[in-house]
Design the sequence.
């Protein structure tokens, strides 16, 4: 069976070391183990690396970069295609102009033919308005279907 190609946004990776949220951290650590085992194909964009590097806590930056070094992943650059998709998302009113990086995460994932975006950003990404809007745009523009899910949705018994 073909492996799912999953895009990991900054929030997902950030929860690998989020002691203040043990449940979410535990879910992300379970998913990380599945990625390390090769159950999923992972993709991470330049946006994620930029956002991690901009964290003022240097120790947290080092910890997260160490985690990333544990897995095989496709690094996605911000392409013209990703920027175009991000613009369509703004034009459609799915995510406001001020949420540029969130729109770029989606654009990068769609442009790279990812099937799933893994996020713990429930305010902007993992919510029905964004999920339905992104699916609609991907469909109208001729891209493959894409879902936005929390790590727990990929780690439940029987799903892998």
Sequence:
């Amino acid at each position: 069976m073909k492996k799912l190609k999953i895009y990991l946004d900054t929030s997902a990776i950030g929860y690998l070391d989020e002691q203040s949220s043990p449940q979410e951290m535990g879910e992300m650590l379970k998913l990380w183990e599945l990625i390390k085992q090769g159950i999923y194909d992972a993709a991470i964009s330049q946006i994620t690396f930029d956002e991690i590097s901009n964290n003022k806590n240097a120790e947290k930056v080092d910890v997260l970069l160490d985690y990333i070094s544990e897995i095989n992943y496709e690094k996605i650059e911000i392409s013209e295609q990703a920027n175009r998709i991000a613009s369509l998302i703004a034009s459609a009113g799915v995510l406001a102009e001020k949420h540029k990086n969130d729109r770029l995460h989606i654009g990068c994932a769609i442009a790279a033919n990812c099937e799933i975006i893994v996020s713990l950003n429930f305010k902007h990404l993992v919510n029905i308005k964004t999920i339905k809007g992104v699916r609609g745009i991907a469909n109208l523009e001729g891209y493959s279907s894409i879902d936005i899910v929390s790590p727990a949705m990929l780690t439940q018994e029987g799903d892998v």
